[in-house]
């Protein structure tokens, strides 16, 4: 029986989500799945966001499945000369909150509970605007640990106010959810005082287990060329270069009829995406690997791929294209180290594709080494290359067996119904709790946080 059939009657009020940019990525996939899952449980759901490009978002955000409302997209930019990104994100989020509060749009929804992720800086203001609706904050990972380029004293000084705001503002949530036991441990070590204020819950991300995974059949496994697939955003922290280096280390006679496909999120507005794609092309060239890039994928574009291409770049592939390549992949390589969770390995296992991933972070909780895939040291290129080679030489029936084990694991532990139930339980728990209404000092604390943001701007530009 489907989860929706078992769902309780729809309660009064709306569960309101806030997410800064509904593009294509793991965090966005989690928000979309959470919102769809709660809808299937009978809840009315609305997502507010600062940006959602219909040409660069998940299908549910543009086909009417979800009620997505965009506010505060301008005049504040995403960044200023590729700097002050966190400042702009906070100001855009606050602008959104103020706009929907003053217009009466938020009040009209009769918010029952809020689910906020990525940006916690607006939680004090949200508590002040709608004090009767509790907040569940989904912490994908502490932002202070994600910030790049913090070696200089100036950069550390610039980040200091935001690190303080992140921890302080999370205390205004009634509960904090995290995406894995790994992240829960990181949060506890990063903010030891936070657990005294709010409860931390593990709510695993999910994949849609209603999809047909039968595409990866015997014919696709024996096809030519064989495909080793990587799906990640084009960001340096995703360590996609590891896949290129490991692939290049395979003996030439073994990779002659193999293609490494590097696919994933790519936004031309984001400088790092553009730069890293260029760096990966240069890396492939340095290893004498012929490469080709496609910004869209259809029958015509596929036929245009040069026959000698060893590395194929697919930029911002839609879901049907991703499904197609998962259907013909012999192995998925997931290269990030200390990834908070990692949704792509689940998608691959659901499609009956074995996964090679780093032996750190979330994949340790999702992949069973030597059963549904392999966990290897991301610093050991030779170990990754050895797994790739072994999969290329492995009998098809062994690949199918590992794929079947992976699919069974995902369907039993990581389906959308599992996530929806965990999330609904967490929301019901905070709804049942009694908590103090915000005091008159709340506006003052919000002003203080904004002054700290202004101070950070001054530090950055002075």
* Helix content bin: 40-55%
Strand % is: 15-25%
Q: How are strands sequenced across the largest beta sheet?
A: 3-2-1-4-5-6-7
CATH topology of the largest domain: Rossmann fold
**What is the CATH superfamily classification of the largest domain?**
Glycogen Phosphorylase B
Coarse shape:
globular
Largest sheet: 7 strands, parallel
List low-confidence stretches: 1-7, 215-223
**What gap, in angstroms, lies between the N and C termini?**
62 Å
Q: Determine the number of helices (DSSP H or I, runs of at least 4 residues).
A: 19
What is the correct CATH architecture of the largest domain? 3-Layer(aba) Sandwich
Total beta-strand segments: 14
The average pLDDT value, as a whole number, equals: 88
- CATH class category name of the largest domain: Alpha Beta
Q: Rg, please?
A: 23 Å
- Quickly count the domains: 2
What structural class results from the helix and strand content? alpha/beta
InterPro entries: ALG2 (IPR027054), Glyco_trans_1 (IPR001296), Glyco_trans_4-like_N (IPR028098)
Protein name: Alpha-1,3/1,6-mannosyltransferase ALG2
Family: Belongs to the glycosyltransferase group 1 family.
Pfam families: Glyco_transf_4, Glycos_transf_1
